[in-house]
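Input record, target 12 of the design panel.
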């Protein structure tokens, strides 16, 4: 089994990566937490697939799990849903010794982590990610939260998990589109930090994802360790492709594109801006597009897509409100930096070309 230690501030925790870890989840948790009560939070798609296996494993390790299932989908990531989860935890008698397990994709990771952060002012959180995106991205870094009427992730807390268990077998039931969107974040990591991974991605073996997941966790956790609270600009590099990507996601009412698909388009636009403002070579930009297409990720907007909505959505981006844009660019694959030199017109041009 691979074990990666993640450091953030004073906190350290392990990410375990291997096939078939779910049945031993209880044992891994027992080495770190006593409970005995815990909430096992998952969504309506995941509960029927994996809840029973984990529940049995927790019971055999002496824990008393309370399963809490919420409707699948982004629309469940609300304060009202977090409140309802807390009510169920109180009714089940969870106390300060109890802990929360989030079993699911990024939605479950974010809301279960948020609940763990606020329940009795904070109890431990264990993440068991079930999507590729959650394994390589959302389960690392400690950002938890919920959405409000006005936007995504506006309420939240930094609350690192005590343990992350990545059982790669769970990815077998993941729909194709959901699986592929994880590669948008992996390709982003390669562009900003790992030129070698970029060249190997075209030959990735879907049956042997452990080394790839490990590498991506290392990349993200290294960046987070340097700038846990977004203060120095280092963590902002993880937003490469996300300024325009988020605007596309919003312009499509969060229905037209999955997050990773919108980010795929955002990566292309960010590469175009980088060609103009940071000297990125055209063949590198084309290599990014080819790689994204290999994972069936979009690299062009549909002709009839309402582009003006993207510009409207960009105004919601906090960076634009005060007139100064800090835009992440790359001069060469494997590195990225923040630029103050990118204008709204540069962004407009890049979106118009998509
Ligand atoms: N905290 C962070 O740092 C961070 C980073 C990136 C994204 N996020 C958040 O992550 C969320 C997106 O995550 P996501 O893409 O994992 O979405 P998700 O949690 O909605 O999962 C996608 C879909 O796949 C289903 N599913 C999950 N695992 C499955 C499996 N193994 N088999 C079959 N179906 C399965 C889910 O029920 C859901 O319908 C967003 O809310 C985003 O804001 C957070
Ligand atoms: Zn993302």
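The sequence produced for target 12 reads:
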């Amino acid at each position: 089994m691979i074990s990666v230690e993640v450091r953030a501030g004073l906190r350290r925790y392990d990410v375990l990566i291997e096939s078939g870890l779910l049945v031993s989840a209880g044992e891994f948790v027992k080495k770190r937490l006593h409970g005995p009560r815990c909430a096992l939070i998952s969504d309506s798609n995941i509960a029927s697939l994996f809840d029973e296996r984990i529940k049995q494993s927790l019971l055999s390790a002496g824990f008393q799990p309370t399963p809490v299932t919420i409707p699948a989908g982004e629309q469940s990531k609300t304060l009202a849903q977090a409140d309802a989860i807390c009510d169920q935890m109180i009714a089940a008698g969870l106390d300060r010794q109890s802990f929360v397990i989030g079993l699911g994709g990024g939605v479950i990771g974010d809301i279960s982590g948020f609940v763990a952060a606020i329940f009795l002012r904070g109890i431990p959180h264990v993440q068991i990610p079930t999507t590729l995106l959650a394994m390589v991205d959302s389960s690392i870094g400690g950002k938890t939260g919920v959405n409000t009427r006005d936007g995504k992730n506006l309420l939240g807390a930094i609350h690192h998990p005590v343990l992350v268990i990545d059982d790669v077998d769970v990815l077998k039931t993941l729909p194709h589109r959901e699986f592929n969107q994880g590669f948008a974040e992996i390709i982003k990591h390669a562009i900003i930090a790992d030129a070698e991974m970029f060249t190997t991605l075209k030959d990735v073996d879907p049956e042997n994802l452990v080394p790839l997941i490990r590498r991506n966790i290392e990349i993200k956790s290294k960046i987070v360790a340097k700038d846990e609270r977004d203060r120095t600009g280092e963590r902002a590099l993880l937003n490469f492709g996300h300024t325009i990507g988020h605007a596309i996601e919003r312009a499509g009412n969060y229905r037209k594109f999955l997050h990773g698909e919108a980010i795929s388009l955002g990566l292309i636009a960010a590469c175009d801006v980088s060609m103009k403002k940071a000297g990125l070579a055209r063949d590198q930009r084309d290599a990014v597009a080819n790689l994204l297409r290999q994972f069936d990720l979009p690299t062009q907007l549909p002709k009839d897509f309402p582009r003006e909505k993207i510009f409207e959505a960009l105004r919601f981006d906090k960076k634009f409100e005060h007139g100064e844009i800090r835009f992440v660019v790359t001069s060469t694959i494997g590195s990225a930096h923040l630029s103050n030199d990118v204008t709204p017109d540069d962004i407009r041009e890049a979106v118009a070309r998509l």
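The mean pLDDT is 94.
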